[in-house]
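[audit] Reproducing an earlier prediction to check determinism. Same input, same settings, fresh worker. If the tokens differ from the archived copy the diff job will pick it up downstream; this log only records the rerun itself.
[audit] input (80 residues):
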Amino acid sequence: MKAIKFFEMSTKELQDKLTELKSNLFNLRFKHATNQLTNNMAMVECKRDIARVKTILRQRELNISFEPETKAKKAKKSTK
């Protein structure tokens, strides 16, 4: 997944995505250990996505990167 898509997600969505990616990585490692994994790059891509999500979460924790505005917030600002 591209990094831009992760930047567009809210913090809660990123935390959910991180949980999903970790579960996916566990399954990929299990398949790799049992020689059932056909695409070895899937593990590499999954690890990179986990790193991207963790980086964005940490940036938001340090207030380096901000959460995107929700549609309700955008509509409220445009009416003023």
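[audit] rerun output stored. Observation attached for the diff report: The chain has one domain: 3-79.
[audit] end
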